[in-house]
Amino acid sequence: MKTMAAIGGLALSTLLASAELPRAQEPTGTKAPRTGENSFTEGQAKAWLENAGYTHVAGLVLGSDGVWRASARLKGVPALVRLDYQGNITEH
Predict the structure, then answer these.
(1) Which long-range contacts (CB under 8 A, 24 or more apart) does 53-57 make?
(2) Along the 92 residues of the chain, how does pLDDT read in single tens digits?
(3) Closest Cα to residue 45, out of 54, 11, 75?
(4) What is the DSSP letter of 66?
(5) Contact criterion met (CB below 8 Å) for 36 and 85
(6) Whole-model pTM?
(7) Residue 87, phi-psi category: left (phi > 0), alpha (psi -120 to 50), beta (remainder)
(8) Which parts of the chain are beta strand (E)?
(9) Which segment of the chain is annotated as a signal peptide (predicted)?
């Protein structure tokens, strides 16, 4: 009986681990944003940037290339950021 409970607990923890929400990628400033149809709403784009550590996210604009652009701060330093449809964040 203990073995069955342990197997059930392991299966449940594996299921929960695989159900995690995607995490924002660390900003590197070197990857070009990928163009394409973007399904992020403005609120989702702002939350994605904030989850990556950006603060004071302002002026979010979705370009015709499907890339969100905004001004923000990272560790207090002003930055112009881009967010593509895959969640890649770049600074420009």
Answers:
(1) 53/27, 54/27, 54/79, 54/81, 54/89, 57/81
(2) 555 444 545 444 444 444 444 454 544 454 678 888 888 999 999 999 999 999 999 999 999 999 999 999 999 999 999 999 999 999 98
(3) 54
(4) S
(5) yes
(6) 0.64
(7) left
(8) 54-62, 68-74, 77-83, 89-91
(9) 1-19
